[in-house]
Amino acid sequence: MYKYKIYNKLSTSLSKIIDDDTEHIVGYIKKDYSNIFTRFIDLIGDGKFFNSFKIYTDG
């Protein structure tokens, strides 16, 4: 099982994805907005409207 924590639901910074068994980083996840307008609407809605994420593998 993999786990990650997103501390700020409006942040677009990378968060680590960690393998629960080995405790190694297997990739990264970050919130993604298609344009500045969707980000602004999500800011007004406290991060509840747009939930698009990008996954980056580590290797």
Explain what this protein looks like in three dimensions.
This protein is α+β, with helices and mostly antiparallel strands and 59 residues long. The chain contains 1 helix and 4 strands, in the order E-E-E-H-E. The model has no long low-confidence stretch (mean pLDDT 84).
How many distinct beta strands? Answer: 4
Mean of residue pLDDT values: 84
Strand order of the largest sheet: 1-2-3-4
Tally of individual helices = 1
Radius of gyration: 13 Å
Helical residue percent band: 10-25%
Uncertain stretches of 5 or more adjacent residues = none
The SS-based structural class is alpha+beta
- Cα-to-Cα separation, first versus last residue: 18 Å
Please describe the biggest sheet, giving its number of strands, its sense, and whether it closes into a barrel: 4 strands, antiparallel
Secondary-structure element sequence?
EEEHE
> Looking at the structure, what is the overall shape?
elongated
Proportion of strand residues: 25-35%
Task: Note the topology.
Elements: E1 2-3, E2 15-19, E3 25-31, H1 36-44, E4 53-57
Antiparallel strand pairs: 1-2, 2-3, 3-4
